[in-house]
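Data card: per-record layout.
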Amino acid sequence: MIRNIIFDLGNVIINYNQKQIINSFTQKEDEIKYIYDEIFHAPEWHLMDLGDMTNEEAIEVINKRNECKYEKLTKDFLHEWYKKQTINREIVEIAKKLKKNGYKLFVLSNMANLTYEYFKNNEFFSLCSGIIISAHEHIKKPDEKVYKLLLDRYHLNAEECLFIDDDPSEENYKTANKMGIKGRKIIPNQAEDVKKLLLEYEIEI
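The structure for this 205-residue chain is written out next.
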């Protein structure tokens, strides 16, 4: 029987669309490619998610590596990109109903400190009985250790947990399943697919 619902944040609770975010800063092809290659898909992004590098340190390293070719863009982007995201109100409403119906809610998310600080006062987080953010723990999905941390810290039985995550690689939910946690990959930002997943486990809202 499912008693606990574990939410990812990006593309579940928080709308995270890289293309839309980048387009809010530039429409130039070279700059778009630069942001994709040298920021989103660079080692520094991973290190910020792990809490092992600050925003300012990342800006310095990225600019140095690229000989400051896009110095202002790098600064502007890393100072402001996370503010371009929005809360998925439909899924928050689902979370409210789950809470009202007696389910305990948890967060397990790969996220940098600045992003979490920006969103942490949203009403969704007040619904949660526990929150694990990768930057706080210096470990991230799909490492088994972060799932074990969640289960151990909040004294959860894996078989009583349902994990809602959109990871395109599917590694996040596969690791969860391996550890006994229920769930599957959902369609990003789709409240209807979240409802469908809940019904698959006989959870009505």
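Known properties of this structure: The beta strands are 4-7, 14-15, 86-87, 104-109, 128-133, 161-165, 182-185. Residues 29-40 form the longest helix (12 residues).

See the next section for split statistics.
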